[in-house]
Amino acid sequence: MTDGGVDRSVECTGNANAMISAFECVHDGWGVAVLVGVPNKDDAFKTHPVNLLNGRTLKGTFFGNYKPRSDIPGVVEKYMKKELELEKFITHEIPFSEINKAFDYMLRGESLRCIIRMEA
Q1: pTM of the model
Q2: Using CA atoms, how far apart are residues 111 and 50, in angstroms rounded to an integer?
Q3: Does the keyword RNA-binding apply (predicted)?
Q4: Residue 31: other Cβ atoms inside 10 A
Q5: Residue 14 in contact with residue 41, Cβ under 8 Å?
Q6: Of 41, 44, 65, 85, which residue is the least packed, with the fewest Cβ within 10 Å?
């Protein structure tokens, strides 16, 4: 389909099989796979060593290589100056007593971010 592989692939699900597929589908010699999704702690990434020796590049990142200690103060400052609109990402607000609804929304892909309100 791609005449030897894609130039770039990005995997965002955290599914180990999807990660392997994202890496193995890039072109020998110059293809780059970027893994962004966070896998299960027990998952293993298994591929034939030749896939690495043929010049494919595998990159990964946790949280976009974000450095909380140095980067969070800048994000907070942008938020306080209204330069960063986080509210538009909140899709649901749920009381703690209904926390299972938040998981249901997440599993069905119906929410981006849920705010869980602690009850008094």
Answers
A1: 0.56
A2: 40
A3: no
A4: 23
A5: no
A6: 41
Token couple for 1: 């389909």
Residue 22, both tokens: 């994202």
Tell me the longest C-alpha to C-alpha distance in the chain.
Answer: 61
pLDDT tens-digit readout, 53-79? 999 999 988 767 777 788 889 989 999
Residue 80 contacts residue 61 (beta carbons within 8 Å): no
Q: Which domain holds residue 93?
A: 68-117
Q: Where are the alpha helices (DSSP H) in the chain?
A: 16-24, 50-53, 68-80, 99-107
Decide: 46 and 23 in contact? Cβ < 8 Å: no
Return the closest-CA partner of residue 114 out of 45, 106, 20, 19. Answer: 106
